[in-house]
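tRNA (guanine-N(7)-)-methyltransferase
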Amino acid sequence: MTAAGKRQKREDYRKTHKEEGNAELPKKKFYRQRAHANPFSDHRLTYPASPALMDWSSHYPAFVAPDTQSVAKDHAGVKPLTKPVTVADIGCGFGGLLVALSPLLPDELILGLEIRTQVTEYVEDRISALRSQCADRSPRPYQNISCLRANTMKFLPNFFARGQLSHIFLCFPDPHFKARKHKARIVSSTLCAEYAYVLRPGGCVYTITDVEELGEWMRSRFEAFGNSGVGGEDEGGESGEGRAEGMFETIELPEEGKEGEWVDEGGQKGLVAMLVRCIREETEEGKKVTRNGGKRFVSVFRRREDPAWPDEI
């Protein structure tokens, strides 16, 4: 079969699967797309001018507020939800983490953000199929997860208000090995500022990679952010005299395979351990690393409280 024929076959499958509301899980081979996308390109994305103008009703229909009469006039057409989105999986890939998080965080609305068109479509169809398969259950599972095509390096604050998120996941991001490509990494001094903005004090950023150098890169950027004595350039910087603490603190984590001991303790410590175990075991890339006998480098960063203004000290 020619390349054009294969492409047409994939398009026909995706169209049929969506039109028929198929409860069968979609097949990845019909949604294949190159692994990397240029975050600086114009991807013809749609995004709200502000978080208040984002209509989440089609993403979380089970959580649409019953009374929509109180919507402000300048927010016409926006149907409010009974609760806000509080968890973001940035670069969610084929949605393995989203599906795993749904029963672990049943009281949270979880959003996957993915820049690749066909991969986003796969996750949307996957969630739709899971919801259809479980339509007769009560409460209905997988209603608290959704996926959105977006470029978070450009538009994250357009979707989330200040302090809205409790958890951000950055799982196996593109390492961009070449030095001239480092500016395209999902963690940088500039992006740390945006993560700090949308994350509530006490909220956490979870990172995992199988590239040790990238793991160290992400750790150093989060630890340095907000510390005026550390160089802010993404090529690195030397420590100096400045704030003793940045905006993020690194959290101690359980050894791999021993997360259950921490989970049994409960509380915030148990929650972090449960989510760390999830990103190690449930992501597609995490499973691939396990099959290949590779290493995973995990870090979790908790956002500190905002520093006091000078006249408040």
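thats it. Confidence is low (pLDDT under 50) at residues 235-243. The CA atoms of residues 88 and 111 lie 5 Å apart. bye
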